[in-house]
Design a protein that fits this description.
The protein has 183 residues and is of the alpha/beta class. It has a single domain, classed as HAD superfamily/HAD-like (Rossmann fold, 3-Layer(aba) Sandwich). The chain has 7 helices and 6 strands. The chain has a 6-stranded parallel sheet with strand order 3-2-1-4-5-6. The chain is globular and about 45 Å long. The termini are close together. The mean pLDDT is 92.
Length: 183
């Protein structure tokens, strides 16, 4: 297992947004900053993880834009609010990547496709996907990470040490992930 110091110098962490950092609105979308609510402990977890990983990225499917329920200005305001809170508490996010495409659009930039990973690699060429971790709450997040060759952690209400195929580990929250002794 790599030491924490090796993670600091070489590893990147990719995080899904809704359901990992903030409360997911089931059947809807976070459309404004006042609808954005950090999950309990997620802000502290990001601050802690900022000290461990070289880069933290947010990768998020945001088809509410493609559906016309919000626009690019709305998503920018949401992300500005989120980043302000993270930075004010001592955390860092290297970049946010999102895809506004509808799931039905072919081709699209949504996870589990690797468009957002490739954008991060273009912006930060030092990223090695084999030295990256994806934390998400959906199977498309896990497929995204596995397709890129990352270690993967699924946020789920009923955590166990791993799924039957051992392709990813299951955790209860980003806080749970931040308290792991090894990744």
């Amino acid at each position: 297992m790599p030491s924490i110091e090796e993670y600091k110098n070489n590893w990147s962490l990719f995080l899904d947004r809704d359901g990992v950092i903030n409360k997911r609105i089931f059947g809807g979308y976070v459309k404004s900053p006042n609808e954005f609510e950090f999950l309990p402990g997620s802000l502290d977890a990001i601050v802690h993880l900022s000290k461990i990983f070289n880069h933290l990225f947010i990768v998020s499917n945001q088809q509410g834009i493609g559906k016309g329920l919000m626009n690019e200005t709305d998503i920018a305001e949401i992300h500005d609010f989120m980043l302000t809170e993270i930075h004010r508490n001592g955390g860092k996010i290297s970049a946010i990547y999102y895809c506004a495409d509808l799931a039905s659009k072919i081709p699209n930039c949504r996870k589990p496709g690797l468009s957002m990973a490739y954008r991060a690699k273009k912006d930060f060429p030092e990223i090695e996907f084999s030295k990256s971790i994806m934390v998400g709450d959906t199977m498309s997040d896990m497929e995204f990470g596995m397709n890129a060759g990352m270690k993967c952690y699924l946020v789920h209400d009923n955590p166990v040490s791993s799924n039957p195929k051992s392709d990813y580990k299951i955790i209860s929250s980003l806080t749970h992930f931040s308290k792991l002794k090894t990744f």
